[in-house]
Automatic annotation (TrEMBL):
<dbReference type="Pfam" id="PF07947">
    <property type="entry name" value="YhhN"/>
</dbReference>
<feature type="transmembrane region" description="Helical">
    <location>
        <begin position="109"/>
        <end position="127"/>
    </location>
</feature>
<keyword id="KW-1133">Transmembrane helix</keyword>
<feature type="transmembrane region" description="Helical">
    <location>
        <begin position="133"/>
        <end position="151"/>
    </location>
</feature>
<keyword id="KW-0472">Membrane</keyword>
<feature type="transmembrane region" description="Helical">
    <location>
        <begin position="55"/>
        <end position="74"/>
    </location>
</feature>
<keyword id="KW-0812">Transmembrane</keyword>
<feature type="transmembrane region" description="Helical">
    <location>
        <begin position="29"/>
        <end position="48"/>
    </location>
</feature>
<dbReference type="GO" id="GO:0016787">
    <property type="term" value="F:hydrolase activity"/>
</dbReference>
<dbReference type="InterPro" id="IPR012506">
    <property type="entry name" value="TMEM86B-like"/>
</dbReference>
<feature type="transmembrane region" description="Helical">
    <location>
        <begin position="187"/>
        <end position="209"/>
    </location>
</feature>
<protein>
    <submittedName>
        <fullName>Uncharacterized membrane protein YhhN</fullName>
    </submittedName>
</protein>
<dbReference type="GO" id="GO:0016020">
    <property type="term" value="C:membrane"/>
</dbReference>
<feature type="transmembrane region" description="Helical">
    <location>
        <begin position="80"/>
        <end position="97"/>
    </location>
</feature>
<comment type="similarity">
    <text>Belongs to the TMEM86 family.</text>
</comment>
<feature type="transmembrane region" description="Helical">
    <location>
        <begin position="163"/>
        <end position="181"/>
    </location>
</feature>
Length: 218
């Protein structure tokens, strides 16, 4: 499964990078990669907390919908994609609050909010008026998810917590890179930067479920 995910991710990135006649690779393998990560979590049935796994499964399914919507060549596609990922982050957040309090460690939330607000000030002139409220709402959900993932990782000190925390940070990096590429200026190797960190994020979060399964099985 990990090898299939890696190959599919590389083909998705390659198709996006080359464009033109190779764009079909992106259209096929971008959602397929997310689907393979979803299948990896689906197979991890012996988790210590089944609700954690279920919340991650729903979040990944919503991420898959977001992948498809973002590939649509229209403004509505971006808006639907943004909405899908926003709700996905709420389900990730739900999973990350199963075994620890919300924002039990305050420092990650404060630091990530300050960082995201600084980014928003830079990006704001390029954000269209119709997208300003959705972008702010999305940013807040993304920051909440990432901060909770890091807070949980610090509180638990387990492999499961560390994997999910690193996944949350990778998600933040991916979406921040995407925002700069879209609202500020085109970035070199943007497909590699955005999709590479995105798939790392999904895979690490999926591994957190498998890690919990392995612990439970022992």
């Amino acid at each position: 499964m990990p090898l299939a995910i890696l190959i599919s991710a590389l083909l998705a990135i390659l198709g996006s990078t080359l464009g033109g006649d190779a764009l079909w690779l992106h259209y096929i393998f971008k959602p397929l990669t997310t689907l393979l990560v979803w299948a990896m979590v689906w197979r991890a049935t012996a988790t210590a907390d089944p609700l954690y796994r279920k919340a991650i499964l729903v979040a990944l399914l919503l991420s898959l919908c977001g992948d498809v919507f973002l590939m649509l060549p229209m403004k509505l596609g971006f808006e639907l994609g943004l909405a899908s990922f926003l709700v996905a982050h709420l389900f990730f957040l739900r999973a990350f609050t199963r075994d620890v309090p919300l924002f039990g460690k305050r420092l990650p939330l404060i630091l990530l909010l300050c960082l995201s607000l600084a980014n928003l000030l830079v990006l704001w002139p390029g954000v269209g008026k119709g997208l300003q409220i959705p972008v702010v709402a999305y940013m807040l959900c993304l920051v909440a998810m990432t901060a909770q993932a890091v807070s949980r990782g610090l509180s638990l000190g387990t492999a499961n917590g560390r994997l999910a925390a690193c996944g949350g940070v990778a998600f933040l990096i991916s979406d921040t890179t995407l925002a700069y590429n879209k609202f500020y200026a085109p970035l070199p190797a943007s497909a590699l930067l955005v999709l590479g960190t995105y798939y790392v994020a999904l895979y690490l979060i999926a591994l957190s479920v498998k890690s919990a399964s392995a612990t439970y099985a022992r």
